[in-house]
Design goal:
This protein is an alpha+beta fold. It has a single domain, classed as RNA-binding S4 domain (Structural Genomics Hypothetical 15.5 Kd Protein In mrcA-pckA Intergenic Region, Chain A). Helices cover 19% and strands 30% of the residues. The protein has a 5-stranded antiparallel beta sheet with strand order 2-1-3-4-5. A hairpin with a 2-residue loop joins strand 3 and strand 4. Helix 1 packs across helix 2. The radius of gyration is 12 Å and the shape is globular. The N and C termini lie far apart (32 Å).
Length: 86
């Protein structure tokens, strides 16, 4: 699954367009490397998402089959690190 679609599916961003823009600006990384929105994510990837005032690093445990509810999304990933920035 493409990283922009995955971030939307897991409710980590509000829209796929925001996920794509995050990739373009270097705010989405996989394994520490900046990625394009078309990059395919796989189980085991370490994904970092930076937003204003917030940074989240997750490990993808399982690939969702389709859209999941915000309540169920955390079962597909493990939070490695979450930090607030100023």
């Amino acid at each position: 699954m493409r990283i922009d679609l995955l971030l939307k599916t897991l409710c980590l961003v509000k829209t796929r367009n925001l996920a794509s823009k995050g990739c373009e600006t270097g705010n989405v990384r996989i394994g520490g490397a900046v990625v394009k929105s078309s990059r395919e994510a796989v189980e085991g990837d370490i994904i970092e998402v930076r937003k204003p005032g917030h940074s989240l690093v997750i490990e993808l445990l399982e690939m969702p089959a389709g859209q999941v509810s915000k309540k169920d999304a955390p079962r597909f990933y493990r939070v490695v690190r979450e930090t607030k920035t100023e």
